[in-house]
Amino acid sequence: MELLIAAALGYLLGSLPFAVIVSRAFGLADPRSFGSGNPGATNVLRTGNKAAALLTLLGDAAKGWLAMLIATKVGAGETAVALAGLAAFLGHVFPFTLGFKGGKGVATAVGVLLGFSVPLAGIAIGLWIAVAAITRYSSLAALVAAGAAPLIAGLLVGRIQVVLPVTIISAVLILRHKGNIQKLLAGTESRLGGNRSKGSKKTVQEN
User: Fold this and answer.
1) Exposed, middle or buried, 57 (CB in 10 Å: 0-12/13-18/19+)?
2) For residue 162, how many C-alpha atoms fall within 13 Å in the half-sphere facing its CB?
3) Are 88 and 108 in contact (CB under 8 A)?
4) Is residue 198 part of a domain?
5) Radius of gyration of the chain from Cα atoms?
């Protein structure tokens, strides 16, 4: 019962579509209607509204961390806490609120990593920043961080209750970036700061 409640809590929190919520609050177009069509912070950034993108990023990350925090505060065991985080990530990727078509889950994954271990999250974020700064490819940065996360979790924590969910999250993240991998190989992937839409309620031009 504890595991079921933890999973339900995490999934419900993860299903909150902050990209859509924040975009509506700022009077921007639905992020699913332009750019990559992905309801996430990177696509919101394409509107040029950095505040909206930042709020989306923080909201999406907070979902994973908050699910684990609540589970911890009510006295759930380590497995249930881990399940709450994993469910929050899956809720973001497959939210019932958006017809099970959600974001790629990078920010929410970071929140879950933070719930597991601050150093684990810090190293993953550091890898993302380094790769993104050098290449200006957000997708490549996410792929590198996702690929390294299970290894880092194993070295820093080592417990199966952490390594297994991190591995699942990493695998889903990589699968969700399948289209980006194809574009990277073809040399057609968009770079950070390279695509912007006007983000109005009425019309949005996809770059």
Assistant:
1) buried
2) 20
3) yes
4) no
5) 17
Look at residue 193 in the predicted model and tell me its pLDDT. 64
Residue 99, exposed/middle/buried by CB under 10 A (0-12, 13-18, 19+)? Answer: exposed
Structural domain total, the chain: 1
Average pLDDT over residues 51-56: 96
Q: 110 lies in which domain range?
A: 2-186
Q: pTM (2 decimals)? A: 0.89
| Residue 195 maps to a domain | no
